[in-house]
Amino acid sequence: MRRILVVNSKGGCGKTTVATNLASLYAALGKRTVLYDQDPQLCSHTWLEQRPSDLAAVHGVAAHQRVPVGFTRSWCLRIPAETERLVVDTAAAADKPQILEHVKSADAILVPLVPAAIDTRAAVGFIKELMTVSKYGCVRIGAVVNRIRNGGSRLGELERVLQTLGMPLVARLHDNPGYGEASESGLGLHELDSDDARAELGNWQRILAWLEEDESIRLPMPAGASAMHS
Ligand SMILES: Nc1ncnc2c1ncn2[C@@H]1O[C@H](COP(=O)(O)OP(=O)(O)O)[C@@H](O)[C@H]1O
Ligand SMILES: [Mg+2]
Fold it and tell me: Which ligand is nearest the CA of 148, by number?
């Protein structure tokens, strides 16, 4: 099983967006996938509740979910033995012991970052801490710059900071209406039948290739080739 942690102490930078899209992609690629929601806000869990049952199944585990009557907490939190990809969506402002706990067991870490001056400053401290912690576990850490708008002036600044920190920039995701649409309906971007969404898929190919360390990896068939959920 490969564990992928999506983390940043900042809220709203795209952790849930990255985690849910990744989970739906892995599932569509035929990997037995668990989406582990570590955030008390349960956004990934809510996304999964909306997911149409005819799409590739993602198994959900939510650390802060109320345990239904008749079930034990450990049963609700179990990761099925046959799981191939575990995608962990984390809470904003996760404190160090919490991060450490997840970093220790992660195979790869994705840090979504938005190109804004104030976020870049906050991110530097967080990334340095993450790198220090992860040295012990030899984890691969990569940045996903998110919500890039045409003409945005802060991207260069953020890229220079990442370079200085020696952190690979795995992909640049654009501000795209498809993400909101997909998040409301339990879909990944690749499951939307829209030109906007399709224009963004090359970035997801880059993310998968980096995570899997396999440049030849191909995305599942894009929406339009099979039954549509638009
Ligand atoms: N690239 C993007 N383009 C458009 N909207 C986005 C993008 N990334 C995230 N969003 C939206 O921004 C909001 C916050 O993103 P989210 O993934 O929930 O952040 P986090 O989990 O880090 O708090 C959500 O409404 C999401 O749909
Ligand atoms: Mg979130």
Answer: 1
H or E, element range at 111: strand 108-113
Protein residues with CB under 6 Å of any ligand 1 atom: 11-17, 43, 92, 146-147, 173, 175-176, 179-180, 183
> Residue ranges of the domains in the chain?
2-212
Cβ atoms of 164 and 142 closer than 8 Å: no
- What's the pLDDT tens digit per position in 175-222? 999 999 999 999 999 999 999 999 999 999 999 999 999 999 988 876
CATH of domain 2-212: 3.40.50.300
Q: Nearest 5 degrees, angle CA 5-CA 74-CA 35? A: 30
DSSP bridge pairs for 209: none
Closest-CA residue, ligand 1 atom 26, reads 180
Is the pLDDT score of 134 beyond 90? no
CA distances from residue 153 to 150, 176, 213 in whole angstroms, order as listed: 9, 18, 31
pLDDT tens digits, residue range 66-79?
Answer: 998 999 999 999 99
Closest ligand 1 atom to Cα of 148: 1
* Strand, helix or coil for residue 42: coil
CA of 6 to the centre of ligand 2 (A): 10
- Contact (CB, 8 A) for 14 and 27: no
Specify whether the CB–CB gap between 179 and 20 falls below 8 A.
no
pTM of the model: 0.94
